[in-house]
Known about the structure:
Blueprint: H1 7-18, E1 24-29, H2 36-48, E2 51-56, H3 95-110, E3 114-116, H4 132-145, H5 147-150, E4 157-159, H6 167-176, H7 201-213
Parallel strand pairs: 1-2, 3-4
Helix pairs in contact: 1-6, 6-7
Amino acid sequence: MLLSGGLDSATCLAVAQAEGLAPIALSFDYGQRHDVELEAAGRIARRAGVEHVVCRIDLRAFGGSALTDDVEVPKSDGDVVPGPAEIPVTYVPARNTIFLSFALALAEVRGAEQIFIGVNAVDYSGYPDCRPEFVDAFQTMARLATKVGVEGVCAVVIRTPLIELSKAEIVTLGTRLGVDHASTISCYDPDDQGRACGRCDACRLRARGFADAGIADPTTYQ
């Protein structure tokens, strides 16, 4: 279970537990500027009563993103939210490929037959590694690149239960499953107290999701 500490991954965890599964939560300290999300991931994992593994990798060594380099996070006060028309500077090169590769290794070692990732192709920021085509390609690679896949022991399945849901539908689903939305954080540029900026792409998508769902937004903003 890839657990970032955000709204989507927390909902994904709740979906897995609702199916009766016993997830292992996997988070990454990858040099992200919004590292308060790791604290959120820890809170979510403890509340869910699941094992929480944190891997430390340094994607700042590569940079190339507003989340891992000295690049300003874009912000706006407008009502228009981002979409798939262009890839924003908050895209971290190959991030989901890297994360899923680590998850695949953990799954193979632990005997897990499924990997959950909360990617979304409806209300998202246009990241190429959130699309169904990417997930399908990684699924094929997972069968070819693992001992369990080659030997036919099992084919590790990549699960994306939120990929066709709007942000409002994700908020609604999470509420129904008992997700503590106040424990999650989506902001790309929170302050030292962990308060969301309210103006980055992630904040605006999140806020619109709660508004469209007709559910109170518990986010603490700056």
